Structures are given as C-alpha cells and as structure tokens.
C-alpha cells in the first residue's frame, strides 16, 4: 500500500545541485515503481540561501526540515563565501540544521565495491570486502562548545574553541553504536584521546558504563586512541566493525575511511535524531563530501554518495530495506559494467558524466524491477 512521505531537498552549492538532480531521478523512480509516494519540497541552503536571502538557512527552510520525514542535503560552501561573517557562512546553515533537529548520531558507512578495488590508493587485499560503520557524534564537542572565539588573555589576543561533552551526549551516541553493532559483527571500537584530553577520559569511562550497564555484554568493546585509529584505518581497516567517536575525530576519520572505498564521492551518511514516542525520528541524509568547487559545474561529480545516502533514507527513515538494497545493487551493477566518473576512473573503464551515471543507475533499477 502506498504511503505519503515528505522529503525536503536542500541541494546547496557547488556540486550539491548536480548530485541532487541525480538523486531526484531515483526518488522519482521509487515514487512511480515502489510502494511509497514522496511529497517533495525543495529549498535553498548554504551560499545559495545567502545569495537569495542573506542567510545560509531561513527560518522557513528550518521549519520545513523539522517537519519533513527526511531531508536530502547536497553540499554547501565555496571560496566566494569564505570571508563572510561567522553566522552567514554556508557551513553555518548545515550546523544549524544538525543542532536544531538534534541529529546527534551521524552514520558514515565505508563499504568497498569489488569493482572499485583499483580506484583505492590501498592494496586490493587491504580493502576488499571492507564494511565498517563510523558513528560520529554530531551535535556537541568542539563544534558547539562554549566559550569560543577571540579574547584577551594576559594582554595577548587569543582564540578559543571548547571541547565539551555531557554524560547524556555520550550515552545516547554510544547506545546507537552498540545497537548497530548488534545487527553487524558485534564489535565497537571507541576512539578518543584519553591520553591527553579530559573529555577523552570521560568519553572512555562513559562508553564503558553504557557497555556494562546497558546490557551490551554480547558486544565486544575496545578503546583506541584517535591518532592510532587513523593509522589503523589505513594499515588494516578490516579489523574494525563499528567505530564510535566524537564530532571532530569523526569528521577526520570518515574522510580517511572514504578513501578506502576509492573516492570521497562514494561515501554516504545518515544523521539521525532520537526516536520519539510515535517511533519517528528526525533525519538528514547527505554525502560525506563537500561542494567540490574545483569540479563544480563541469558534470564531473560522482553522484554515488548522494544516491547511496538516499538508500540510507529508505532504510532508516522509511523502513524500506528492500528498496535500499535495490538502489545499492543498482549502483554496484553500474560500477561492474566499468562506467566511471573521473574520481574513480581506472584503465579500461568508460568515463561518463554525473548525469550519465544517474541514468545508468536508473537503467539498472529498471532491469531489476522488470
Ligand atoms: P570537498 O569534499 O568538497 O572536496 C575534496 C576533494 O574531493 C576535491 O578535490 C573534490 O573535487 C573531490 N570530490 C568531493 N566530492 C566529490 C564527488 N562527489 N565526485 C568527485 N570528486 C569529489 O572538500 P573541500 O574541498 O575541503 O571543501 C570544499 C567546500 O565544501 C568547503 O567550503 C567546505 O566547507 C565544504 N564542505 C561541505 C560539506 C557539506 O556540505 N557537508 C562537507 C565537506 C566540505
Ligand atoms: C562534513 C563537513 C562539515 C563538518 C562542515 C561542512 C561543517 O566537513 O559534514 O563532514 O565539518 O561536519
Ligand atoms: Mn567533513
């Protein structure tokens, strides 16, 4: 039976609108072919919203996001906005969405597709069969801690950012990580810097308490220092199942993990809030990559991260796991035929554009649903 779901599209800047055009094809395909109907709304975010309205996110767009069943977000940013005031910067629009929707759990899966083994800068045997999930805390830590900014200290100008975590902020993201691990390979590595940061010690202790008191004794918990974690991700990434970490370390470690899959253009993400009394949760889905100003407007962007982010929306917001599998299988099939955007190009493959990649995924979806 068809159900009506509200989807807010926020394409943003740079390659954001380009990859959103491609995800729109897949959304429309689902709308026509599967048991779901999407009521699609669209608004501006980032530099595009600043150009139109003088702010990177209007209150109206914020309201739409709060009331949507899911938000699909492209990317924001660009050199022309780098010198704007702090709150006018494109990135401030994204941070406001995350904070006000309370999207504390950012799931960043790094999965390698066999067809792309050669696109990775690592040896095939290191990355083949890789399937890890980074759970990044997204609404606290140094991204939001106070005080921050310029101040005078002992007669000198200095600038401060504050790393801060409450117990609850750690508990809820640790629970998400343990719950995910239970459906996977039952291992969680918690990454922090407990050797130099007080918040690192608190993070480690709190995650251990959640593990012990939360009934997670079927899950194996290990602690890893974040710098070592970055090195281990490159040395032997398959040792990991779920990695849970704070906002800043999660940002860095997920970019590292992205390259294991061949390109930043392949990595999707889901940013999730708490489940409410009606079983609903706020959610925003976005590629891990940014607006890529160096390739914007040239049809070179890889839309896979955006398409796979929509697959995550089907799985986590709409309980349509089979349809999510379908999108992922179609993506995999396209790559197996040797079609490549430039970021994942290798010898003997066929170079195609952003929109050709979207069309190729639709053609594979058609084959599967025929
Ligand atoms: P970036 O992710 O935009 O690009 C890094 C490199 O990866 C570039 O060489 C780019 O061409 C390439 N790349 C990224 N996505 C790709 C794709 N889909 N297909 C092919 N190649 C791709 O990071 P950056 O250059 O450090 O940042 C550019 C701007 O994006 C900055 O303003 C930054 O703040 C912003 N940014 C936004 C987000 C977001 O909106 N979620 C995330 C990261 C960076
Ligand atoms: C990401 C980005 C953002 C972050 C920026 C654009 C605010 O790098 O989503 O990974 O630092 O979280
Ligand atoms: Mn990032």
Describe this structure in words.
Homodimer. It is found in: Cytoplasm. With 370 residues, this protein is α/β, with parallel strands linked by helices. It has two domains: 1-104 and 273-370, Isopropylmalate Dehydrogenase (3-Layer(aba) Sandwich); 108-141 and 170-266, Isopropylmalate Dehydrogenase (3-Layer(aba) Sandwich), CATH 3.40.718.10. The protein is built from twelve helices and 14 strands. The protein has helices at 16-33, 47-53, 59-67, 90-100, 124-127, 167-182, 198-213, 226-235, 247-260, 304-316, 321-336, 354-369; strands at residues 4-12, 37-42, 70-75, 105-111, 131-137, 145-153, 156-162, 187-192, 220-225, 242-245, 270-272, 283-285, 339-340, 350-351. The strands form three sheets. The protein has a ten-stranded mixed sheet, sandwiched between helices. Strand 8 (187-192), helix 7 (198-213) and strand 9 form a beta-alpha-beta unit. It is globular, with a radius of gyration of 20 Å. 3-isopropylmalic acid is lined by residues 77, 91, 94-95, 251, 288, 290.
């Amino acid at each position: 039976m068809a159900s009506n779901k509200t989807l807010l599209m926020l394409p943003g800047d740079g390659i954001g609108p380009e990859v959103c055009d491609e995800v729109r094809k897949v959304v429309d395909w689902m709308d026509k072919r599967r048991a779901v109907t999407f009521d699609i709304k669209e608004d501006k975010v980032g530099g595009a919203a600043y150009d139109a309205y003088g702010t990177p996110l209007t209150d109206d767009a914020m309201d739409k996001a709060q009331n949507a069943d899911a938000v699909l977000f492209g990317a924001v940013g660009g050199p022309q906005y780098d010198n704007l005031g702090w709150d006018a910067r494109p990135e401030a629009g994204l941070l406001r969405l995350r904070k006000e929707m309370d999207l504390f759990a950012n799931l960043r899966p790094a999965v390698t597709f066999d067809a792309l083994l050669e696109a990775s800068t690592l040896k095939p045997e290191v990355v083949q069969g890789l399937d890890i999930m980074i759970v990044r805390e997204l609404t606290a830590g140094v991204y939001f801690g106070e005080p921050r900014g310029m101040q005078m200290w002992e007669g000198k100008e200095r600038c401060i950012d504050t790393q801060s975590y409450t117990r609850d902020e750690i508990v809820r993201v640790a629970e998400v990580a343990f719950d995910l691990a239970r459906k996977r390979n039952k291992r969680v590595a918690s990454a922090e810097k407990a050797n130099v940061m007080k918040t690192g010690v608190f993070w480690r202790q709190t995650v251990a308490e959640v593990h012990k008191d939360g009934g997670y004794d079927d899950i194996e918990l290990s602690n890893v220092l974040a710098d070592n974690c970055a090195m281990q991700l490159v040395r032997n990434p398959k040792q990991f199942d779920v990695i849970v970490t704070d906002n800043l370390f999660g940002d860095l470690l997920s970019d590292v993990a992205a390259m294991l899959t061949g390109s930043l253009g392949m990595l999707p993400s889901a940013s999730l809030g708490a489940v409410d009394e009606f079983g609903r949760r706020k959610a925003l889905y976005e590629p891990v990559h940014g607006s890529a100003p160096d390739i914007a407007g040239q049809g070179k962007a890889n839309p896979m991260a955006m398409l796979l982010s929509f697959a995550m929306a089907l799985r986590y917001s709409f309980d349509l796991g089979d349809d999510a599998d379908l999108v992922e299988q179609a993506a995999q099939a396209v790559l197996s035929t040797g079609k490549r955007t430039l970021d994942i190009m290798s010898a003997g493959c066929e170079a195609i554009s952003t929109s050709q990649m979207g069309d190729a995924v639709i053609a594979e979806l058609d084959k599967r649903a025929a």
